[in-house]
Amino acid sequence: MNQETIEEGKIYAVVSYLTIIGSVIAIIMNGEKKNEFTTFHNRQGLGLCLLWMLIGYFVSQFDNMQISLAFWVSMGALLFLGVMTAVNGSMKPIPVIGPLFQKLFKAIG
């Protein structure tokens, strides 16, 4: 992949990490051009957003500030890592769960 492809897809790659709506917008906007860099980050961003909602549902059942804080800090760190890899022009998957998102959402792209 060349630098031009990365630069073209950077904006949508970052947008894909901003809530589920951002992920859907980035997927739709990447529909025609099929930028490989953006597609990679679309899968990562969509996976993180869905994981955030799924785990958040279960964490909300506990009335414990420590559990909630651990959830927010860990998910926030993963989202920050994803955004920073997109900004830096890297296609490095999110640790542990990133390769799973690439397999689950391989139809996106």
Main beta sheet strand tally, sense and closure: none
Beta-strand portion reads under 5%
The counted number of beta strands is 0
Distance between the termini: 15 Å
Report low-confidence residues grouped into runs of 5 or more: none
Total count of domains: 1
Order of helices and strands: HHHHH
Shape: elongated
Q: Mean of the pLDDT scores?
A: 92
The radius of gyration is: 14 Å
Per DSSP, the total helix count is 5
Which structural category fits the helices and strands? Answer: mainly alpha
Helical proportion, percent range: over 70%
Search tags:
5 helices, elongated
At a glance:
With 109 residues, this protein is mainly alpha-helical. The protein has helices at residues 3-15, 19-29, 36-59, 65-87, 98-104.
Helix and strand layout, with pairings?
Layout: H1 3-15, H2 19-29, H3 36-59, H4 65-87, H5 98-104
Structure description:
There is one protein chain. The chain contains 5 helices and no strands. Helix 2 runs antiparallel to helix 3. 72% of the residues lie in helices and 0% in strands. It starts with a helix and ends in a 5-residue tail after the last helix. It is mostly helical and 109 residues long. It has one domain (3-104). It has helices at 3-15, 19-29, 36-59, 65-87, 98-104. Keywords: Membrane, Transmembrane, Transmembrane helix. The chain crosses the membrane at residues 12-31, 43-60, 66-87. This is Import component protein.
